[in-house]
Design goal:
- By secondary structure, the protein is mostly helical.
- It has a single domain, classed as Orthogonal Bundle (Arc Repressor Mutant, subunit A).
- The protein is 72% helix and 9% strand.
- The protein has six helices and three strands; from the N terminus they run H-H-E-H-H-E-E-H-H.
- It has a three-stranded antiparallel β-sheet with strand order 1-3-2.
- Helix 1 runs antiparallel to helix 6 and helix 2 packs across helix 5.
- The longest helix has 34 residues.
- The protein is elongated, with a radius of gyration of 19 Å.
- It starts with a helix and ends with a helix.
Length: 144
């Protein structure tokens, strides 16, 4: 019985991650095509837009975007190298070791346009019946 339960959990989890990976792929390709944004860049803009004063220290973005410190630093640097003016780096005046990245008004406009695409892709890509069925399976497995 326990072996069967473990197998059910694994199969359900794999189905859920398969759906998530397919949707992430759709989001990535649409954001790149329509807005020249990777999914990680979209998340970076999104998290900055939600932060107080629309700025965060680079180390704060690590866990939010799901990247290491060096990868976040490279992501911000690559984004700035595009020259679109969406981000601005600032050295912290009280602790010069810290670097802030802030969202500019250009970045906010870029994010607002990309959010429309993001939501359109989610509405089309989310498999209502499959996802609902998977979530029900997970709940039933938890009750066993």
């Amino acid at each position: 019985m326990e072996n069967e339960l473990n197998h059910d959990y694994i199969c359900t989890w794999l189905s859920l991650t398969h759906i998530q990976m397919n949707i992430a792929g759709e989001l990535e390709s649409n954001l790149l095509e329509k807005h020249q944004l990777s999914l990680k860049e979209f998340y970076l803009l999104l998290f900055l837009s939600q932060a107080p004063e629309k700025k965060l220290k680079l180390h704060q973005l690590e866990s939010m975007v799901g990247l290491s410190q060096s990868a976040v630093s490279r992501l911000v640097s690559r984004f700035e190298a595009k020259g679109c003016g969406a981000l601005q780096k600032q050295i912290c005046e009280t602790d010069r070791r810290n670097v802030y990245t802030s969202l500019t008004s250009i970045g906010q406009d870029k994010l607002d346009r990309a959010k429309v695409t993001f939501n359109e892709v989610l509405l089309k890509a989310l498999p209502d019946n499959d996802l609902e069925s998977l979530l029900q399976q997970i709940l039933q497995l938890k009750q066993r």
